[in-house]
Amino acid sequence: MGDPQELLASASGQPVAQLFFNAMGRAPAIVFTLSGFAVMNLVAVPGLQSGSRTVFAFARDDLIPLSRVWRRISPRSRTPVAAVWLYAALEITVNLLGLVSDTAIGAVFNVCTVALNVSYLVPIVCKLVYGRFERGPWHLGKGCSWALNVVAVGWNLFMGVVFFLPVKLPVTRENMNYAVAVFAFVLLFASGFWYTHGRHYYTGPGTQSRGSLQHTVVRTV
Fold first, then answer.
1. Of 51, 65, 136, 192, which residue is least crowded by CB atoms under 10 Å?
2. Which residues fall within 8 angstroms of residue 166, CB to CB, at 6 or more apart?
3. Is there a contact between 104 and 175 (Cβ–Cβ < 8 Å)?
4. One digit per residue, pLDDT tens: the chain, 221 residues?
């Protein structure tokens, strides 16, 4: 593998690629490195799909500015092209932070993981606290379900704390994990947006009649 410090100081600027080269040689290193880039691009595709779908859903329910624009369905492809381009532009803009600061983009990535965990955590906590949950045709029973929910809550809380912790010691202004600050900003912005705008327009999930649905169907993979 070689000295970890030498890997970090690799002339290629890619410690992982240098690790492959040291361990396996030139040809396997190229294959494994290109495979990694391919996997990252493949992962980005469903991310773009789910993100643009979320933008479309918010626009359909009049939750974001210019909703009429973002919820528009292309008559040619029957897809929300405007919502896809909006999310793609936001995604590119955020990822440009990686060219400026590793600390900044690291905080964004950590917040994405924490936010995903929170999206799982909230409905599980509501189920445990309020107990109003309609079982499906297949379930694990009351006792096992409760135990798994408690484990899920504990795990998500644990992972939330882990992704907010610093990744290097000693902690300095340059290597501090600012994920908690970014997460707090997102919560404050979302709360402010809801109380100043969203609650005045949002009346529940939008519905469409059968006739209009035939003309606005969205293609999915």
1. 136
2. 175, 176, 177
3. no
4. 667 778 777 777 788 888 888 888 889 989 999 998 899 888 888 888 888 999 999 898 888 888 899 999 999 988 999 999 999 999 899 889 888 888 888 888 899 889 888 988 999 999 899 887 777 787 788 888 889 999 999 999 999 899 999 888 888 888 889 999 999 999 999 899 888 877 887 777 765 544 344 444 445 44
